[in-house]
Amino acid sequence: MADAFAHLSNMWRYPTVIRFGIGRISELPQVCQELGMKRPLLVTDPGLAALPMIKSAVDANNAAGVPTTLFSEIKGNPTGKNLMDGIAVFEKNKCDGIVAFGGGSAMDCGKAIALIAGQRAVGNPNPWSDYAVFGPGGKIAKKDKVVPIIAVPTTAGTGSEVGRAAVITDEATHTKRILLYPYMMPATVISDPALTVGLPAHITAATGMDALAHCFEAYSAKDFHPMADGIAVEGMRLIKEWLPRAVKDGKDLEARAHMMAAASMGAAAFNKGLGAVHALSHPVGALFDTHHGLTNAVFMPYVMAFNKSAIEDKMVRLAGYLGIEPRTYQGVMDWVLKLRQELKIPHTLADLGVPKDRLEEVAKLAAEDPCAPENPIHCGPKEMLAMLDASHVGRL
């Protein structure tokens, strides 16, 4: 009897404490103290490090008796070197916690520092890549040996603030490796929509499309997870309504708040799984240093077309929920294409500067990506190459 219902079986994990609201960044010193942090390392990117919001956060912590060290030497696609440089700063300053402050790069690098520094502190000096999914060393991190993490997102895209994974580029293999452990989930998130107000329109668009890709792929993934499906479709409704407003007027705090919520919802939903959009984006980002959200946005309609036979019924339901007419797969596809055009998203992979003679290399890496098995239709190197060819010339 149980075998007949095997498709209704899965394991579900959901997020953490989120302090959501305008102005809540003022609570950072209190949260550090609540988590027992006495000397946190604030991890951010070089652009944010030069802005007043970072200085204000560090100054507020220092004034509250929580001396805070700043680390910002990370790339848009953080690398293993960035990670190890951060660990060196963490250890040199005897830090005891992480404040990951910024977009996806800061979140991923901060969470990875917390994981690897925690393992090193208990006598596990293995290379960081050994702890990755399909990592060369096949190591499993010791449970609960991760220093406490506070996440402060400043974009509305990755949702990494409520994620239990970090993506780091392995320079030696030119691949993106995924560190995936439930105890990498930040203990507390401070989601303050006011921190996203300074984002340029093109970054708002790219990160917003990243959130859409998370929700869409989670909804489309083949595993059984009705809670994730519900979160994903509501996340897409928020994005449909509020992303164009946030791009048009970056000071629209209502739009910024809804997009920040949608981004976290996307990451909560993709506990169910992702798919070929991310499997393709990861090697493209690793090889050509493209913006992750923008790359997802380029691939999205081509993966939709590939998956049509498996997701058509779901698209009918989605169109009804989002108020899209006609209530069909094609109606959803037309909405995605129109939204990309409105937000000035490049239509092809060639527009991102990816050369055609590298597509076979990308296809092989994409088929080996941990997100590939979650796609609703099997996609090996041949299928990945077909999607890459289509996306390179804009064929739908």
Which CATH-level-2 architecture of the largest domain? Up-down Bundle
**What shape does the CA trace take?**
globular
Question: Helix share of residues?
Answer: 40-55%
Detail the poorly predicted runs.
none
Q: Which strands sit side by side, in order, in the main sheet?
A: 1-8-5-4-2-3
Radius of gyration: 20 Å
- Count of separate structural domains: 2
CATH class of the largest domain: Mainly Alpha
Q: Strand pairing plus helix content: what structural class?
A: alpha/beta
> Counting H and I runs of at least 4 residues, what is the number of helices?
14
The CATH superfamily of the largest domain appears as Dehydroquinate synthase-like - alpha domain
Percent of residues in beta strands?
5-15%
Largest sheet: 6 strands, parallel
- Number of beta strands: 8
What is the residue-mean pLDDT, rounded to a whole number? 92
Query: Distance N terminus to C terminus?
Result: 43 Å
Task: Write up this protein.
This protein has helices at 28-34, 46-49, 52-63, 80-92, 104-121, 201-220, 226-248, 253-269, 276-288, 292-306, 308-322, 329-342, 359-368, 381-393, and strands spanning 17-20, 40-43, 69-71, 97-102, 149-153, 165-170, 175-180, 188-191. Helix content is 49%, strand content 10%. The protein has 396 residues and is an alpha/beta fold. It is globular, with a radius of gyration of 20 Å. It has a six-stranded parallel sheet, with helices on both faces. It has a two-stranded antiparallel sheet with strand order 6-7. It has two domains: 17-196, Rossmann fold, CATH 3.40.50.1970; 201-393, Dehydroquinate synthase-like - alpha domain (Dehydroquinate synthase-like, alpha domain, Up-down Bundle). α4 (80-92) packs across α5. It is built from 14 helices and eight strands.
